[in-house]
Amino acid sequence: MVNSSEVRDLPWLRRADVLVRGYVVIVLATIVVLAVLSVVDAAQATKDAWGHAVIVMLFAVLLPLRMRSARSGSRWALRAVGLISAVLLLVNIVEALVPEMFPMWMRIEMIAIAVLMAAVITCVSMHATRRDENILADR
């Protein structure tokens, strides 16, 4: 049985889920763009760019799985979503700031991912805070 406090919290998780799906779309688009650029303009599809894309693709598999578990009520999965998002936020900002390591289009992609991850962290935090407040109010 779902109580009313859990139902009120679901919008934050829904928003986080939409943001995670957006992240997956960006990562898939990045892989496609890199594949095309490898043929058309190899200078824009560097080994560093491919390395970054492969790593964020691994997270694009892991993050939705954890998000699914979090929406099922797993607090551990919710923490994992927050932690993974924080790591992605920091790594993408740092890598975007490294001079001449990545092409400009990929730096823009990295900043977009960082913004999405900041929004995911906010949603996860709001959900966890509201849930904790509701638990304390029920006691």
UniProtKB/TrEMBL annotation:
<feature type="transmembrane region" description="Helical">
    <location>
        <begin position="18"/>
        <end position="37"/>
    </location>
</feature>
<keyword id="KW-1133">Transmembrane helix</keyword>
<protein>
    <submittedName>
        <fullName>Uncharacterized protein</fullName>
    </submittedName>
</protein>
<feature type="transmembrane region" description="Helical">
    <location>
        <begin position="49"/>
        <end position="65"/>
    </location>
</feature>
<feature type="transmembrane region" description="Helical">
    <location>
        <begin position="110"/>
        <end position="129"/>
    </location>
</feature>
<keyword id="KW-0472">Membrane</keyword>
<keyword id="KW-0812">Transmembrane</keyword>
<feature type="transmembrane region" description="Helical">
    <location>
        <begin position="77"/>
        <end position="98"/>
    </location>
</feature>
